[in-house]
Amino acid sequence: MSEETLKTTVLSDAHRALGGRMVAFAGYAMPVQYPRGILKEHQWTRDQAGLFDVSHMGPAWLELTAPSGDPSADHAAVAALVEPLICGDIAGLKPGRLRYTLLLNDEGGVLDDLMIGRPLDDSDQGRLYIVVNAGTKDADFALLAEAAGHRARLSRADDGALIALQGPAAADVLAAIAPETASLGFMTFRRIAYGDQALAVSRSGYTGEDGFEILVPAKVALEVWNRLMSDERVAPIGLGARDSLRLEAGLPLYGHDIDESVSPVEAALDFAISKRRLKAGAMRGAARMRAEQAGDLSRVRVGLRILEGAPAREGAELTDETGAAIGVITSGGFAPSLGAPIAMGFVPPAFSARGTRLKVTVRNRAQAAEVVDTPFVPHRYHRNP
Amino acid sequence: MHFSKDHEWVEVEGDVATIGITAYAAEQLGDVVFVELPDAGKTIEVGEALAVVESVKAASDVYAPVSGEVIAANDVLSDTPETVNEAPEKSGWFVKIKLSHPAEVDALMDRAGYEAFLATL
After folding, report:
1. Which positions in chain B touch A334 (Cβ < 8 Å)?
2. Domains identified in chain A and CATH numbers
C-alpha cells in the first residue's frame, strides 16, 4: 500500500515535524520511531514518560437510546447488550472502572481484545466507553452495532486523537494539564473537562508502566499533544518501542499472539473470563473453555527466554530437546530492558511449566530457550488502596 | 572504499577485502541488537547472504558484494552489536574475505557514485 492511500491521524504533521519515520500500520501512516531510535525510546519510557499516538485504534461510545434514568438499571441494560459478544463481566463493573476483555466468535475464538469502561457519575450511566484494535475496528464496530440494535447507539470516536502517556513520570506530567487525573487508580477512567471540550482519561496502557490513555477531540488534539511534549520529561515514542515495551510486559498483540483460532484459555487470559458467566454457560464457546480449564487443552501461551543466539521472531518453530516439533513463536524480539531476546509462543501444557527447556529454530539453527513467567519486566501500575 | 547498491562497503588491501554496511544502511536499520556472521573458512559467492543483521524490529540479510573465502569475522559485534550504528564504516566491519575474483570490485561504485545513488532513493 502506498503512503498516498494510507489514512493519517490528526497528529500526523506533528510526527513528521519531530522526524518520525512513518510506516504503514493497519491502514494508517504511523511513526515507527523518531530520530532518538527504538532502544532509547524504550528506555525513556521505562525511566521517564513516553508519548504515543495511538489514534489508529478504535475508541467508541455505546449509549442507550432510551435510558430509564435509573443508573443501575441503565448500566445493566447496556451491559446486557455487549456481554453476549465478550467473555468479561460488564454487569459487575463498578462505576468509573475499566476492564480488559475479549470479543469472541461462536467457537470461543478471540476476534479482538478490547477495553470497556463504565462512567463514574450517576448521570452518565447507560453508556460504555469501548476501545478496540486498529486492524479489527470496522468488524468490531459492526458486531457491536448489530448487537445494540435499536436499543443503543454506537458512536465512533476515532476522528480525534487517542494519546498514551506512559512511564514513571506520566502522572506528574499529566497532572499539570488535568489535575484530577492524579487520583485515578489503575484501570479506572474519567471524563474530564478541558476548556469547552471533554477528555476521556483512563489509567491504563500497553507498556507495563504507570500511565494513561487519553481520548482527545480533534479540535484540541494538537494542543494537548504539544502541551505534553513541552514537558522535558516527555519524549515521543513510535510503534517500534511500543512493541518492545508490550512484549517485555508480557501483553499479547492481537493478530499475532491471539487470533480467532485461539481461545482465551489457550491464550492464558483466564483472568479476563467472567466466572459467573462461564458457570452459567452464558458465553460464546463456554463448553470449549470449561473443557480447556478442566484440562482438555492442547496448547497454551507461554513466555520464553532465548538463551543463546539470535532473537526468535514470529513463526519460529519450537521443538522439545529431542527435536520434535511442539509449537511456534507468535511474537519475539530483543528485550532492551533485559539485553536479551524474549518471545511468546504456544506449547502443549506438558511443556508450559516455568523452567522447561525447549529449542527454537532460527535460520535452521536450534537455539536453547526456557519457559519463564510473564511479565518479563515487572509491571509498575499505580493501584489505589 | 567501494560500495554496492545493497549498501555494503568494501575496502581492499592486496587480495583481502574488508566488508561492512554503510552509514546509510545502519541508519535505515535503526538500533542493531544482533549480528550473525559466517565462520572463517566459509566460501561466499557474490550476491549470497553473507550475514544477518537484526534491529529491534526485524532481521535483514546482508549480501556479499564480492566473492571469496572468509578469513575473519568481527568478534566485537557479538558482544557490542551497537558498534554497527556507532562506527558502521570503521570498527563496525563485518568480515574480511580473501578475494577469489578481484575484478568484481571494479563493478562497485566509488563514494561519489554511491552518494549519487543515495540521492536517487
Report:
1. 33-34, 54, 56
2. 3-55+160-248 (3.30.1360.120), 58-144 (3.30.70.1400), 296-372 (2.40.30.110)
Q: What is the CATH number of domain B2-119?
A: 2.40.50.100
Sheet holding B59-63, edge to edge: B32-36, B49-55, B59-63
Has this prediction a pTM greater than 0.80?
Answer: yes
User: Residue A154's beta-bridge partner residues?
Assistant: A62
HSE of B43, CA atoms in CB hemisphere, 13 A:
2
CA dist A85 to A148, A170, B68, Å?
Answer: 11, 33, 61
| CB nearest B30 (choices: A33, A310, A313) | A33
In this complex, is the C-beta atom of B30 within 8 Å of any C-beta atom belonging to chain A? Answer: yes
Minimum distance, in Å, between the CA of residue A279 and any CA atom of chain B: 42
Pairs across A and B, CB distance < 8 A: 42
By CA distance, what is A339's nearest residue in B? B33
**What number is the ipTM of this complex?**
0.89
DSSP state letter for A33? E
The count of C-alpha atoms lying within 13 angstroms of the C-alpha of A220, restricted to the half-sphere facing its C-beta, is 16
Cα of A173 vs its chain's centroid, Å: 22
CA distances from A364 to A313, A344, B57 (A): 13, 19, 20
Q: Chain B interface, mutation test: which of A32, A39, A361, A362, most B Cβ atoms within 10 Å?
A: A39
pLDDT per residue as tens, chain A (385 positions):
454 689 999 999 999 999 999 999 999 999 999 999 999 999 999 999 999 999 999 999 999 999 999 999 999 999 999 999 999 999 999 999 999 999 999 999 999 999 999 999 999 999 999 999 999 999 999 999 999 999 999 999 999 999 999 999 999 999 999 999 999 999 999 999 999 999 999 999 999 999 999 999 999 999 999 999 999 999 999 999 999 999 999 999 999 999 999 999 999 999 999 999 999 998 999 999 999 999 999 999 999 999 999 999 999 999 999 999 999 999 999 999 999 999 999 999 999 999 999 999 999 999 999 999 999 999 999 998 7
Are the Cβ atoms of B52 and A341 closer than 8 angstroms? Answer: no
Where do the structural domains in chain B lie, given as residue ranges?
A: 2-119
Is the CB of residue A36 less than 8 Å from the CB of residue A145? no
Q: Tell me whether A39 touches chain B (CB under 8 Å).
A: yes
Whether the bond between A349 and the residue before it is cis, its omega within 30 degrees of 0, is: no
B24 at the A interface (CB within 8 A)?
no
- β pairing state of B95-99 and B16-21: antiparallel
Given the DSSP bridges, would you call strands A317-319 and A21-25 parallel, antiparallel or unpaired? Answer: unpaired
Does A310 lie at the interface with B, CB-CB under 8 angstroms? yes
Provide the greatest CA pair distance for chain B: 38
